[in-house]
Amino acid sequence: MGWKRNDIEIDSSVGQLSQGVHPARCVKSEIKDKKSGEGENLVLTFESMKGGEKGRQVRSYLPLDDNMRWKLSEAFLALGNERGAGIAQENFDGKKCRLVIEHEDYQGEPRAQIKKFLPMAEEGEFVEEGTSEEGGKKPEKKSSGGKKSSGGKKLPF
């Protein structure tokens, strides 16, 4: 007869997120050196808050160099931060946004990738991109230009 363990609960967070828009919470943020050894990434770990995929995680590696600053800005603002707030752990950990997830092939297997960061609607709810809760188009926001953080790096927020 085979083995049996009734005291182990199966983790429902195993598996990747499906394609689409997912409300999510940033559960961890850290700065790590790039594998190449040249520069750093802000690594954000998000946990889905969506139905049967609740608890599943996905990571985003945001380079801290000038040519990818737009992506860092997108995540920063989608998490509800104000322009000029600066890059700090408290501006990421525990905050919510919506993630647009698409699957890309990685070594022959589909892998969930964050393609876009979107803000949450009021009171933690989420709406489809490009519409307000009332159903009308949202006005587009314009960038107010770059500001400097306490670290002295020029930031676009």
Describe this structure in words.
It is a single chain. The protein is mainly beta and 157 residues long. It has one domain (20-122, 141-151). Helix content is 6%, strand content 35%. It is built from one helix and seven strands; from the N terminus they run E-E-E-H-E-E-E-E. A five-stranded antiparallel β-sheet has the order 3-2-1-4-5. A hairpin with a 6-residue loop joins strand 1 and strand 2 (40-48). The protein is globular and about 60 Å long. The relative contact order is 0.18. Residues 126-157 have low confidence and may be disordered.
Overall 3D geometry? globular
- What summary fits the major beta sheet? 5 strands, antiparallel
Total strands = 7
**Helicity, as a percent range:** under 10%
Q: Report the end-to-end length measured between terminal Cα atoms.
A: 63 Å
The unreliable regions are: 126-157
The fraction of residues assigned to DSSP E strands is 35-45%
Number of discrete helical segments: 1
Tell me the domain tally. Answer: 1
The strands making up the biggest β-sheet line up spatially as 3-2-1-4-5
Along the chain, the helix and strand elements come as: EEEHEEEE
| Residue-averaged pLDDT | 78
State Rg.
18 Å
